[in-house]
């Protein structure tokens, strides 16, 4: 079971590469011949065959040129090299920068490795780099380093220093080197990857330190990673920090128990120091794989585009890294629509074969098929966006499967707006089966999305079957509101006693429609109704409200009470009526009303209070009408409350009342105690004490007398303190007045006599004159003032008419 789950998980892994056959001219060539080798350029391919032909191909596999002899030939120049060799040539490699004049070099491999280079005389000369260790079947040139493999191992030659810098021996010598050839590839200028048999080695070329050189080469090779693979290696290629490995596979048949050639594998592995981790593995179905050997497969690659060419005698397969379109294809194939949609959104600039909308629609269809209707409807918002036509198409699809309710919460309501029929169709669906859902949509959807009259008629038809359904009634009221039929809406709201009735009245100014519905409003919510009526007195008069509430005095009282609280004078014509209303429904507020009202008929109020035996209210009315003695008598006789009687006497501040209170209390010890405790500051306590009969027991008499004495002492102290303050203030003011009066007064030509109105100073300064100036700053000629009386020598300003010596008295007499 665990193995089955593991295989299922493996099948869910996305492949890293995609494959296609190289066709066109290649198919034609391989029908008559067999491929033996291949090299790859960014712009073209070169394919060698067993018949000794070399074909130049474009990247689509079309033949562009054909060669029948071994030569170095310049495709874009006239230079070429011909040579006859004494043994078969197994391999050839040219300098990576052969096009440069300083790099005209190439090597050939057979029984020996020859280096050809052009001399300064434009002649070619050859040098044997290596021989004597069997045929050389693989050569790779990178930068200044040439790597080759013969029967004994792998060598690296430095073309600059003309030195061989390493020898990597072959691990498994039991394998025939001609049947299981070595695979070489350079990852970069200093990293060589060697695959031979089932062994892989990654070698790094490093510079040797000067102190270590002696007679050794300037460079050396270090094997940084070495591991074994499961199958025989036919080719290697780098892919970033990973390796692409083409493997030759042999398996044993379960039926015949004989070994046979299986399909070759192309693996991507992550090299580690002593092992490797498999990233992906694909078995390739190439033509004629059953007859192929390990030496028949080759792996070539194009560095710029990450293209890998798997070459076999009868087939050439191209492997490419999967792009985002391929990734989306795989996700769609695995029905991972949400991941595919997300990938398309992230890489929408890079995808070429897919459209986000198409993926989204496929995702919606998949969810619907799976029965996830709510998720499918929710995804419509994101996928369909503002495409009204697609929205309408999807709505009809949901209708066909009976899932209009699922898509209703997500329908667009503004941009775009669908046809009214779409919204009406959904509303009818809810109306048939879900009144609450129908009401929710009416509240949430703007009224202009659908034909309001059609929906109103549908609701009314349903109400014929269930006339008391509150949900339908409320929804009908909302529809009437959208249709500006506020009267019908208001009537329904009042019937339902719905809280929105007051908002509806205010919003649409329906005060003219509620004049005959005031009682209904008050019954529903008297507080809100009264506030609304009082706030809109200009639209519904106080008189109209009182008249409408005539048969409901309890509601009438609520209205008039709040009116009185707002303004004591607005409802003055109803104050007489309010006395009875307060007495009947709200006695606690009767006394405050009597105190605050100035329009209340006192006789009527007294009559009502006496009839109902309202003592406190009667006492207040008697005192307000001037009958304080009767009020005090009522307090003493009805309430028996000495504290209240004393408080009443204090408020009236009438000596006769105090006398009556003392006379009433003289034979009641508890009353005497109360008087002794409170009378000290208003009436002389001696008047009370002298009248107390000898031998009468008075509760707390000692404490009361002590309090009287303390109060008396406090009064004395207060008087003395006030006297000191008064004397100090008088002295201060007197000094201030004296300083003021001692100041001089300016008299000049502009001043006039207040009596004769002529200039106060004579025009001729040589003439004698006499002027009187008062402290009030009025000035007179002395002869213009009346003579002082015989009783008082002081003179006073005629204007100020001062009776006592003060600011108007004379302060200065000027003579010359």
UniProtKB/TrEMBL annotation:
Subcellular location: Cytoplasm, Cytosol; Early endosome membrane; Endosome membrane; Late endosome membrane
GO molecular function, one term: zinc ion binding
PROSITE patterns from the UniProt entry: CHCR, ZF_RING_2
Pfam families xref list: Beta-prop_Vps41 (PF23411), TPR_Vps41 (PF23556), zf-RING_Vps41 (PF23555)
InterPro entries with a match to the protein in the record: Beta-prop_Vps41, Clathrin_H-chain/VPS_repeat, TPR-like_helical_dom_sf, Vps41, Vps41/Vps8, WD40/YVTN_repeat-like_dom_sf, WD40_repeat_dom_sf, Znf_RING
GO (cellular component) term, any one: late endosome membrane
RING-type domain sequence ranges: 753-801
CHCR repeat start and end residues: 530-674
Biological processes, Gene Ontology terms: cellular response to starvation; endosomal vesicle fusion; macroautophagy; protein targeting to vacuole
Family of the protein in this entry: Belongs to the VPS41 family.
Protein name: Vacuolar protein sorting-associated protein 41 homolog
Species this chain originates from: Colobus angolensis palliatus (Peters' Angolan colobus)
């Amino acid at each position: 079971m665990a193995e089955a789950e593991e295989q299922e998980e493996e099948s869910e892994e996305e492949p890293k590469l995609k494959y296609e056959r190289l066709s066109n001219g290649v198919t034609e060539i391989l029908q008559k011949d067999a491929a033996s080798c291949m090299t790859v350029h960014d712009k073209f391919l070169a394919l060698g065959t067993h018949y000794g032909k070399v074909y130049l191909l474009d990247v689509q596999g079309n033949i562009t040129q054909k060669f029948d002899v071994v030569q170095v030939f310049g495709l874009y120049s006239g230079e070429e090299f011909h040579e006859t060799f004494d043994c078969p040539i197994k391999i050839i490699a040219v300098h990576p920068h052969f096009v440069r004049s300083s790099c005209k070099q190439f090597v050939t491999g057979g029984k020996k490795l020859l280096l050809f280079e052009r001399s300064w005389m434009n002649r070619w000369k050859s040098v044997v780099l290596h021989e004597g260790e069997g045929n050389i079947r693989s050569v790779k040139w990178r930068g200044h380093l040439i790597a080759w493999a013969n029967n004994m191992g792998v060598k690296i030659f430095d073309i600059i220093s003309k030195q061989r810098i390493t020898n990597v021996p072959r691990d498994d010598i039991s394998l025939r080197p001609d049947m299981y050839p070595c695979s070489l590839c350079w990852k970069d200028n200093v990293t060589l990857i060697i695959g031979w048999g089932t062994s892989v080695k990654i070698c790094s070329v490093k510079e040797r330190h000067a102190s270590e050189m002696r007679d050794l080469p300037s460079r050396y090779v270090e094997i940084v990673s070495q591991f074994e693979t499961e199958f025989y290696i036919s080719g290697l290629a780098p892919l970033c920090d990973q390796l692409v490995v083409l493997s030759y596979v042999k398996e044993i048949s379960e039926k015949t128990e004989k070994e046979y050639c299986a399909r070759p594998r192309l693996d991507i592995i992550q090299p580690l120091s002593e092992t490797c981790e498999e990233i992906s593995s694909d078995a390739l179905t190439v033509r004629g794989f059953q007859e192929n050997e390990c030496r028949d497969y080759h792996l070539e690659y194009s560095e710029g585009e990450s293209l890998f060419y798997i070459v076999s005698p009868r087939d050439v397969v191209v492997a490419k890294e999967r792009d985002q379109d391929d990734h989306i294809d795989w996700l769609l194939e695995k029905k991972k629509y949400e991941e595919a949609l997300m990938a398309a959104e992230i890489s929408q600039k890079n995808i070429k074969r897919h459209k986000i909308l198409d993926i989204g629609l496929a995702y919606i269809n998949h969810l619907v098929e799976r029965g996830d209707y709510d998720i499918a409807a929710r995804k419509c918002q994101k996928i369909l966006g503002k495409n009204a036509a697609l929205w309408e198409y999807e709505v009809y699809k949901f209708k066909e499967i009976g899932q209009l309710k699922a898509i209703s919460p997500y329908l667009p309501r503004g941009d775009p707006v669908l046809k009214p029929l779409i919204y009406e169709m959904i509303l009818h669906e809810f109306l048939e089966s879900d009144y609450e859902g129908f009401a929710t949509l009416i509240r949430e959807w703007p009224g202009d999305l659908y034909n309001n009259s059609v929906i109103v008629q549908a609701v009314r038809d349903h109400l014929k079957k269930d006339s008391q359904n509150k949900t339908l009634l409320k929804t009908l009221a909302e529809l009437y509101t959208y249709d500006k039929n506020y009267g019908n809406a208001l009537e329904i709201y009042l019937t339902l006693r719905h809280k929105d009735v007051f908002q509806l009245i205010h919003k649409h100014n329906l005060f003219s429609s509620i004049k005959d519905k005031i009682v209904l409003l008050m019954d529903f919510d008297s507080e809100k109704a009264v506030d609304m009526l009082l706030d809109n007195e200009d639209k519904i008069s106080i008189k109209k409200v009182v008249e409408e509430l005539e048969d409901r005095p309890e509601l009438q009282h609520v209205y008039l009470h709040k009116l009185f609280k707002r303004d004591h004078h607005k409802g003055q014509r109803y104050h007489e009526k309010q006395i009875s209303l307060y007495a009947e429904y709200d006695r606690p507020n009767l006394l405050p009303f009597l105190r605050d009202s100035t329009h209340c008929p006192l006789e009527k109020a007294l009559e009502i209070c006496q009839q109902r035996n309202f003592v406190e209210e009667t006492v207040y009315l008697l005192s307000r009408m001037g009958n304080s003695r009767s009020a005090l008598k009522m307090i003493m006789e009805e309430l028996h409350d000495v504290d209240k009687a004393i408080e009443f006497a204090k408020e009236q501040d009438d000596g006769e009342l105090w006398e009556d209170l003392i006379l009433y209390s003289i034979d009641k010890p508890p009353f005497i105690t109360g008087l002794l405790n409170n009378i000290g500051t208003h009436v002389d306590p001696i008047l009370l004490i002298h009248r107390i009969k000898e031998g009468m027991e008075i509760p707390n008499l000692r404490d009361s007398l002590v309090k009287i004495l303390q109060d008396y002492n406090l009064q004395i102290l207060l008087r003395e303190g006030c006297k000191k303050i008064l004397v100090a203030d008088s002295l201060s003011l007197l000094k201030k007045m004296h300083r003021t009066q001692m100041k001089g007064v300016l008299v000049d030509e502009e001043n006039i006599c207040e009596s004769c109105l002529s200039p106060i100073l004579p025009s001729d300064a040589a003439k004698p004159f006499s002027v009187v100036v008062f402290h009030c700053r009025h000035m007179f000629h002395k002869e213009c003032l009346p003579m002082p009386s015989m009783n008082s020598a002081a003179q006073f300003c005629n204007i100020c008419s001062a009776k006592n010596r003060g600011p108007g008295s004379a302060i200065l007499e000027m003579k010359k």
